[in-house]
Design brief:
The structure is a single chain. This protein is α/β, with parallel strands linked by helices. The chain is 28% helix and 27% strand. The chain has two domains: 157 residues, Quinone Oxidoreductase, Chain A, domain 1 (Alpha-Beta Complex); 134 residues, NAD(P)-binding Rossmann-like Domain (Rossmann fold, 3-Layer(aba) Sandwich). The protein is built from ten helices and 17 strands. Strands 3, 4, 5, 8, 9, 16 and 17 form a seven-stranded mixed β-sheet that branches. A six-stranded parallel β-sheet has the order 12-11-10-13-14-15. It has a two-stranded antiparallel sheet with strand order 1-2. A hairpin with an 8-residue loop joins strand 1 and strand 2. The radius of gyration is 19 Å and the shape is globular.
């Protein structure tokens, strides 16, 4: 079969022949129609991820045909017995086991789910990892309901956009921030009430003028995280699903305890949440936002597009 194979760190995957997957007990083969990238894939190519091995076929997101049925793949493997947190055997598809950037993949049968009928192959491939992450962060951890005021940081990324779409679907009011005015405008076109550019002076004060927030969904961390707490209403929930900017400096607990805030960590999600997420997407006829589509053989260009940071939505690779 053909696949995108990463052979060394600090390089791009190469489109080449790879061995067909070998089935273990309880596994099935999915003939992939489309796959999608996540920042995790890019970080692996840059050597910024633990447990990297070579050669490896990256990719957590995929949709295709299994035994004549249209399916999507749940990339969260071996969550464990406690829904509150993943167990010690938890792993994400695409490292350490081969992922979806290939014509075929072997996967435990328990990881495949029926593809929502209203989605195209490209949309279905864009959904799994980011959709699951957003669903758990927004609903399980953030407890979002109609009427909540939600702030989503870094709009344009896959998780942030799903969080926007999901929150709007239940009747929440959504605000966003970004370093791009264009991305803010596109988010407003999708239903956000407003947004601010966090590269402008006193961006947080602009949001303060809009009123407080019940829920903050953040994937960045860094220096701006402390400012987010000041934007919260008393009793608000701040959910962190990533730390692309890094550590939070000069964190002060006073605002945290005085406002009775909750800071909640969230990673991926359980098997039940994946099924719930798919049902939610089907019920509300949500269509994932796609930035660009590349063929599998042009996968290196897809990685370059992600590295540039200008995407608005998911970067998808057409396999068949």
């Amino acid at each position: 079969m053909k696949a995108l194979v990463l052979t060394q760190a600090n390089s791009l995957p190469v489109y080449q022949e790879a061995a067909d997957p070998v089935l273990a007990e309880g596994e099935v083969v999915v003939a992939l129609k489309a796959a999608a990238l996540n920042h995790r894939d890019l970080f692996v190519t840059q050597g910024k991820y633990a447990g990297i091995r070579f050669p490896i076929i990256l990719g957590s997101d995929g949709a295709g045909i299994c035994d004549g049925k249209e399916v999507v793949i749940n990339p969260a493997l071996d969550w464990g017995d406690d829904p509150r947190f993943q167990g010690k055997n938890f792993q994400i598809l695409g490292l350490p086991r081969n992922g979806t950037l290939a014509e075929k993949i072997a996967i435990p049968a328990s990881q495949i789910y029926p593809k929502p009928h209203h989605l195209t192959w490209k949309e279905a491939a864009a959904l799994p990892l980011a959709g699951l992450t957003a669903y758990r962060a927004l609903f399980t951890k953030g407890r979002c309901t109609a009427g909540d005021r939600v702030l989503i940081t870094g709009i344009g990324g896959g998780v942030a956009l799903f969080a926007l779409q999901f929150a709007k679907a239940v009747g929440a009011e959504v605000w966003v921030n970004s370093s791009s005015d264009e991305k803010i405008e596109r988010a407003i076109a999708l239903g956000a009430t407003g947004g601010v550019n966090y590269t402008t002076p006193d961006w947080n004060k602009q949001l303060e003028a809009a009123g407080g927030f019940d829920i903050v969904i953040d994937g960045a961390g860094g220096e701006g995280f402390g400012l987010l707490l000041k934007l919260c209403k008393s009793g608000a929930r701040v959910v962190s699903y990533g730390g692309t900017i890094g550590a939070v400096p000069n964190f002060s607990p006073q605002i945290l305890f005085w406002k009775q805030l909750e800071i909640l960590g969230s990673t991926m999600g359980t098997e039940e949440e994946f099924g719930e997420m798919l049902a939610f997407v089907a019920e509300h006829k949500i269509h994932p936002i796609i930035d660009q589509v590349f063929s599998l053989k042009d996968g290196a260009q897809a990685f370059q597009r992600m590295d540039e940071g200008g995407q608005f939505g998911k970067i998808v690779l057409k396999v068949h």
